[in-house]
Amino acid sequence: MKKGIYLAFDVGGTSIQAGAIDASGRLLEHTLSHYESMANGEADEIFGHFVRTAADVLQKADPDGTEQIAGIGYAFPGPFDYERGISYIRGLNKFEALYGMRVGDRLLCGMRTNSGIADRLQAKPLVRFANDAALFAMGEAHYGQAAMYRRAVCLTLGTGIGSGFVETGRLIRQRDDVPENGWVYHLPYRSSVVDDYVSRRGILELAREMGIKLQGQDVKGLAEAARRGDEDSIRLFDTFGSRMAEAWRRR
Fold it and tell me: How far is CA 80 from CA 90, 96, 107, 151, in A?
């Protein structure tokens, strides 16, 4: 790795997890941060927010201003052209405003006009994108629960469902027994696709179907109620788990 600071962002439809890494690959734990995603904003709002989060992480990593940014990495939901940094997310209730845009180019442009970052960028910083669920799957395959298995399917649940197929520590993106890119969100399920049922909006819609009064609660509130022993909330997550299993059995 080149000398300098590397900024890393795990971008979801609800929140962004961020942190900095030094040139040795060591995570600077004091930089770990949590931000809202602003995924339903206009394009300029989203890019401005991304730039501000980068400036904040950089300030935490190097408040004295002695280091430059050597690279920036984004774990980003799909569909997305990860090689060219172009978003093709549409119809998933997140980042709709970025459709067809060269996200990497827009981000670098914004950073070069931000007073907190502009002078801290190397001449040609690395900007890389990868699928958030795929990176999660690789992490689990090497360091987590999936490491003890030859084959594993790793799922991430949030605004939507992400997925990654791994075998002997390698990500499988294309094979007869694996959906294209290892993505399951768009596969047919019931009257629509998996993402409409196995996701945040899927849980909330299921709660409404079951007659649970949300009263402004989101999934976090429902989960907390289930942990407290609320029978309706427990039944909700039991039913949601059954739906996940049903969707998987149909693959």
Answer: 10, 12, 15, 25
Fill in the amino acid letter for 64. Answer: D
Q: Residue 125: is the preceding peptide bond cis (ω within 30°)?
A: no
Residue listed under structure tokens 């002695």: 66
Give the span between the Cα atoms of 39 and 76, in whole angstroms.
12
Residue type, 166: V
pLDDT digits (tens, 9 = 90+) for 167-218: 999 999 989 999 998 999 999 999 999 999 999 999 999 999 999 999 888 9
Identify the three-state secondary structure at position 28.
strand
Q: Where are the alpha helices (DSSP H) in the chain?
A: 43-61, 103-112, 132-143, 194-197, 200-209, 219-227, 231-249
- Residue type at 129 in one-letter notation: F
* pTM (whole model) above 0.85: no
Domains of the chain: 5-131 (3.30.420.40), 134-249 (3.30.420.40)
Q: How far apart are CA 22 and CA 6, in angstroms?
A: 6
